[in-house]
Design brief:
By secondary structure, the protein is mostly helical. The chain is about 70% helix and about 0% strand. It has one domain.
Length: about 45
C-alpha cells in the first residue's frame, strides 16, 4: 500500500531499517523527514 495509517507506518519502520540499500533510491530530504517523524513518534 502506498498510504499507511500511523500504526502501519510505525509497524513498517522496523522493515525500513533493513532497506538501507533501497533508501539510497530515495531523496535525502524524504529520509530526513522520515527520521524526524520516527523520532517524534518515539517521543510521544
Amino acid at each position: 500500500r502506498m498510504v499507511l495509517s500511523s500504526d502501519d507506518w510505525i509497524g513498517s519502520w522496523s522493515l525500513r531499517l533493513g532497506w538501507r540499500h533501497a533508501e539510497r533510491l530515495l531523496s535525502r530530504h524524504f529520509l530526513e523527514m522520515s527520521q524526524t517523524i520516527a523520532l517524534l513518534c518515539c517521543d510521544i
